[in-house]
Amino acid sequence: MSGHRNRLALLLWSADPDRPELCAAPFVHATAAAAIDCEVEIHFSGRAVRLLVAGVADGLHPSSAREVTVLHFMRQAADLGVRFLACAMALKAHVGEGEILIPEFRGTAGAAAFVARALDPEWSTLVY
């Protein structure tokens, strides 16, 4: 990928547990990017941080066929090295005390971190 951007940051905002039909696409795109050797981060914001709570994504199905869970798509991405980052304010607002986050969670990164990615010419960004 010489001469091309090979870093991708995705922002999950409207893809949250209340809308599971929107939750597969970001992880499919992240997996595809990682498969072609892109460095990939997924930034969870707003209610999307609920996907990081143990037990939430494995109870969600993106289609009525109910063949696979949202967690399945998340793990495919994580298995290829996609980093899952969450807004600290969103975690505080939407994750209850004592709730456990999935092992794929890698840390916090707020709005400024995602904006920095969007402004960096080495990174491409997508918003879901």
Distance between the termini: 25 Å
CATH architecture name: 3-Layer(aba) Sandwich
In the predicted model, the low-confidence regions spanning at least 5 consecutive residues are none
* Domain module count: 1
Query: Briefly, what CATH class?
Result: Alpha Beta
Instruction: Report Rg.
Output: 14 Å
Arithmetic mean pLDDT: 95
Q: Major sheet: order of its strands?
A: 4-3-2-1-5
The fold-level CATH name is Hypothetical Protein Ychn, Chain: A
Shape: globular
Please trace the helix and strand order, writing H or E for each element. EHEHEHEHE
- Secondary structure: helix percent: 25-40%
- Please give the number of β-strands: 5
CATH superfamily membership, which one?
DsrEFH-like
Write the layout of secondary structure elements.
Blueprint: E1 7-12, H1 24-35, E2 39-44, H2 70-79, E3 83-86, H3 88-94, E4 105-108, H4 111-119, E5 123-127
Parallel strand pairs: 1-2, 1-5, 2-3, 3-4
Helix pairs in contact: 1-2
Keywords:
five-stranded parallel sheet, alpha/beta, single chain, 128 residues, 4 helices, Hypothetical Protein Ychn, Chain: A, 5 strands
Description:
This protein has a five-stranded parallel β-sheet, with helices on both faces. The protein has helices at residues 24-35, 70-79, 88-94, 111-119; strands at residues 7-12, 39-44, 83-86, 105-108, 123-127. Helix 1 runs parallel beside helix 2. The mean pLDDT is 95. Helix content is 30%, strand content 20%. The protein has one domain: 3-Layer(aba) Sandwich (Hypothetical Protein Ychn, Chain: A), CATH 3.40.1260.10. The protein starts with 6 loop residues before the first strand and ends with a strand. 35% of the residues are buried. The radius of gyration is 14 Å and the shape is globular. The chain has 128 residues and is α/β, with parallel strands linked by helices. It contains four helices and five strands.
